[in-house]
Design a protein that fits this description.
alpha/beta, single chain, 203 residues
Length: 203
């Protein structure tokens, strides 16, 4: 399976709490819900197309708990059958049980276990949100593709997908577009370490 990281971002790179004011208030974050005003039917269709390519999902603990709380109740949503029915994996050193079946808890050497999952047959193992997990797996060279939905808003504070001091990564832009709600949709392929050069006369 290919490992695909899907993230909602603000223009200043914030990934925390896109869906509602109380989605993730850790570290005193009070500006949640910044992505919602820009949702539209175009993005819903794109998200559905991406979701249809999944054969399994991978989450960090916080995102998993939020999804596990909400999605079993949303049986009428067009995405519910896929999210509730497909295999799920949650990377956590503190969870001892997971009630959102079928779920497997990954602890210990998570990158090694994810690498083993990637060797299984299938199309995509998708990470939704879970920015810290996604960032660590990108640094480990395990992420094959990034799908970013960037909202036209500067949040100003909150956890970022790529904070200062993060591991470098090279990417190739595969596609980009916009929606009527103002979202910029960018899809990248991982290429390993970035290349560097010098700009100037004779370069």
């Amino acid at each position: 399976m290919r490992l695909v990281l899907q993230e909602f971002l603000s223009l200043d790179g914030v990934s925390q709490g896109p869906g509602s004011p109380d989605e993730d208030t850790s570290d005193g974050f009070t500006r949640g819900g910044w992505f919602v005003p820009h949702l539209d039917e175009e993005f819903e269709r794109q998200a559905g197309t991406w979701l249809a390519s999944a054969d399994a999902f991978l989450f960090g603990r916080r995102t998993y708990l939020n999804f596990a709380r909400d999605w079993p109740k949303m049986t009428e949503h067009p995405f519910a059958g896929i999210l509730n029915g497909l295999p799920k994996y949650v990377a956590s050193h503190s969870l001892t049980e997971a009630g959102w079946d079928p779920t497997t808890i990954l602890s210990g050497d998570v990158p090694a276990q994810v690498a083993a999952l990637k060797r299984q047959p299938g199309r995509e193992l998708q990470i939704h949100g879970s920015a810290r997990l996604g960032r660590s797996l990108l640094a480990a060279g395990l992420v094959d593709e990034l799908r970013l939905a960037i909202a036209p808003v500067v949040v100003g504070t909150g956890r970022r997908l790529f904070p200062d001091g993060g591991a470098p990564a090279g990417l190739e832009l595969m596609s980009n577009g916009t929606t009527s709600g103002g979202l910029a949709i960018q899809v990248y392929r991982s290429t390993g370490l970035p290349e560097y050069g010098t700009y100037g006369a004779g370069a």
